[in-house]
Amino acid sequence: MRCIADTAPGPRVAPSPSDRPAVTLRGLRPSDVPFVAAIVADALHEHYDPSLYLSLSAEWPEGFLVGADSHDVPVSFLLGVSQVEHEARILMFAVDRNRRMAGIGQLLMETFFERCKARGYRRVTLEVRVSNATAIRFYTRFQYSVVDLLRGYYSDGENGYQMARPLQ
Ligand SMILES: CC(C)(COP(=O)(O)OP(=O)(O)OC[C@H]1O[C@@H](n2cnc3c(N)ncnc32)[C@H](O)[C@@H]1OP(=O)(O)O)[C@@H](O)C(=O)NCCC(=O)NCCS
After folding, report:
1. Model-level pTM?
2. Cα of 95 to ligand 1 centre, how many Å?
3. Which of 30, 143, 42, 158 is nearest to 94 (CA)?
4. Which atom of ligand 1 is nearest to the CA of 97?
């Protein structure tokens, strides 16, 4: 499973207090899967078997955060798993391109940290394309730093960075 980032800059909607979306964070529901898959296809350029999302969320349901709009439609999500003792790993993280730059990513990330701390995790890791400057800047703002260069990590041959952040 690779966290594949959007390398093409898409159109952005400038945030303003009046159109800032009200997002409710909740867990994944089976009916969310088509919406989450659509965000993944657009933002991460990946197409996974729909059953993957529910199976990945089964072990740690609180690690799969869905940000839903006022109609309860998913517009963002963060999928975290734990494969190493005391650590969480972000497998996928994306916000609908029309909802970015409005603080939704921050809300997801900060809530995820709380979920990790509640489980006693000491570190969060993730992978990102070296070309994904937007995501790297975002992660750096949240005290992630590059811990490894993953040569040819992505299926198109692009290198990735592994980034990590300690949790106090
Ligand atoms: C990375 C990603 C999840 C961030 O989500 P987001 O909702 O745009 O994140 P935020 O709005 O919390 O923060 C983004 C930026 O907007 C700024 N911002 C947030 N609210 C703002 C507001 N009201 N006014 C102005 N700027 C604002 C933040 O300061 C931040 O600045 P930065 O670019 O210096 O980090 C999003 O860009 C995305 O989905 N990218 C495509 C998928 C991807 O690359 N995923 C990561 C794969 S590893």
Report:
1. 0.90
2. 8
3. 42
4. 39
